Amino acid sequence: AQKQVLPQFPEKQNFYEGGYSQFYKEAHNYLKTNNLKDCDNKNEAYLMRVLVNEDGSVNYIKDSDKIGVENNKCTFDLAVKILSNLKNFKPAELDGVKTPAIAKILFVPNELFSEDNYLTKKDLYKNPEFPGGIENYRKKFISCFDISGYTYNMDFKFVINFDVDTQGEIQNIYIDTGFANDRFLKMVLDCIVPRKLKFKPGSYNGTPVTM
Predict the structure, then answer these.
(1) How far is residue 199's CA from residue 169's CA, in Å, rounded to a whole number?
(2) Which pLDDT tens digit goes with each residue over 106-124?
(3) From CA 87, how far away is CA 185, in angstroms rounded?
(4) How far apart are CA 68 and CA 194, in angstroms?
């Protein structure tokens, strides 16, 4: 169907009633109430992308990182069960209209089963790293970026958004801009993925996760 889907929730909007803390609390309660078992590998962690529809229903978005899914299969299966049974998802709103949007949820079973603190911890995240640092990535992008052949008479900006998966590959690219020139945007897309080099994946508590 042809419909607008927001690549992320607007600022200050939550994908779940009560935000991440309430989501994790209800996920914890679901696992405990239904006597589900924790994963044997206590280091598993998996970031899942889900589409929250305008009616509050959710769909799992297929992950191109098959190795990441396979390495965290137990977590993936638990996440699917949680998404199927929690009911308080909230659609995004754009100009007062309920609009489908993508949410990203990190599942860490070892924490979700814990009775002490089942929330993810910010200090356990480690960002993806590009060889030579992010400035080297910017240099490689700029060396590819070519505005010759374009004529423009106003200032404009574009913000590049992408995920780095557990293999260090760039995925899920979208460009936030009001500059609507298809040929220009294709050139930008072609420059986003650097040739020959890739990122060192980000991690959560030492486990590679998409970020």
Answers:
(1) 7
(2) 999 999 999 888 888 999 9
(3) 38
(4) 21
